[in-house]
Description:
This protein is an alpha+beta fold.
Amino acid sequence: MNQSRSRVAVSFDFQLTLTGGLLLVQALVRSDFGALHGVSSDPLIWQHHPAYDCWRLEVFSALFERLLVTGGGLFNRELKVLMLENAFKFVDRVWFHVAVTNFRSQRATENVGATLSHHVVRESGGVTAEFIH
């Protein structure tokens, strides 16, 4: 069976500001470093994080640089809802690509209404990984 897909060109702003009842979400910029390090320099904030020593300046600096390159990684319910509400202004479907071993993200996406569509095995740069969509 041959199915054709149609694609629609969409102008999507990746640097917009999203506002909810509890959050104001905007793109991370280099000038945010001082304020973010200031509020995150308490070791107790990081005690349950895999990188538990991010309160140290050199570790936080490396994390901050990685976040600048990758666009961040803060996901919680309200952030996902804000992003989805914005995306649904332009498209009728959003795909989450979650590693099969990432049970925390699987639960989080289910909590915002996502349903499992299919499993995929992908190879990228010599690394094979299995994802659910």
